[in-house]
Amino acid sequence: MPARTVSLIGSTGSIGTQAIDVVRAEPDRYRVIALAASTSVDELAAQAEELRPDVVAIADASLAPKLRELVPDGVEVMAGPESLAALATEADVIVNGVVGFAGLGVTLAALRAGRRLALANKESLIAGGPVVQRARATEGAEILPVDSEHCAVHQCLRGNPIERVGRLVITASGGPFRGRSSAELADVTVEEALAHPTWSMGPKITVDSSTLMNKGLEVIEAHELFGQGPSGPLSGPEGYDRIDVVVHPQSVVHSMVEYTDGATMAQLSMPDMRLPIGYALAYPDRGEAPWGAIDWSTLGRLDFEPPDHDNFPCLGLAYEAGRAGGDAPATLNAANEVAVAAFLDGLISWLAIADILKETLDRHNGGRLETAEDVVEADRRARERARLAVERRTESR
Asked: What is the pLDDT of residues 19-42, one digit of tens each?
């Protein structure tokens, strides 16, 4: 059987480097034909030296001359923001590990080309939901979620009718601030927010985990991924009533599906993103490397508790935006990217992140998303409102 071809978009980030680990573990099974990054030219060149893809791309066109000097002979170099999407059309599997809204073009290009999209970039699905769903209808197109929670749901649904789903239960670690009071959250630092107790992730998603916004975005993502058909149990605004979040600090149960007969299916493994990456690459088969295998002699307990909506209001804001539909999720996502960046830059407090999201949503008038341009415009408007909200808080400090 010929090797399955893979394009790694965002290859130098956390998802991309772990995807390369998966490829290394089964080198005869996969062939990486394309690599792409935003600005990390030295890392990208080193990956090209090891994997010998057909083509590499760098989003920052000014770095293209340096990249051409560093890559092996015979490797084509593409450059510019549009080059990332251009590499999302040829391989059997496209891994979208781009961070944030910038991944939308990659998502749409892969689906419109009828490819399998191993999706780690949840923001593109959340912000562009209606547009992405139309692209997803392309013959041959499919989404395999590269996210521990949604990969778990996907596994629990295998062989079971979606019509018999009672509810999805998305697990959350609770992040570094689980159990803290509002007073204790008032002065948390960037360093504290980046100290995740169980996962090693990039700074943006780690801050999202600390606010529970990451879980809120995953609720919207679950609705987009699994709310199949106009009459399915998870479809429409009412579908959000069947998607619950439970805090599980050990991060061993990655999500659960409860069926109408009362049975609950769960997927368990130790925290290791290479498992969902490998699942997406190998599906419908499974990989041979035991990423995240559990040592049952040392796993002493599994705890569960409800999320604290009062001190972590971002989760409720995500439910609100998801139920509103249209461009509300895009508005929420854009405002969150602006607010998190401002927090990481030391411009606002951690508590102000939720305040900025609420203010941006409150000023949102609602709108439909028919085209990719509509998504981009909704994103632009929300970012402008969120930046103004950041500026007002910066000036008052």
From this structure: 999 999 999 999 999 999 999 999
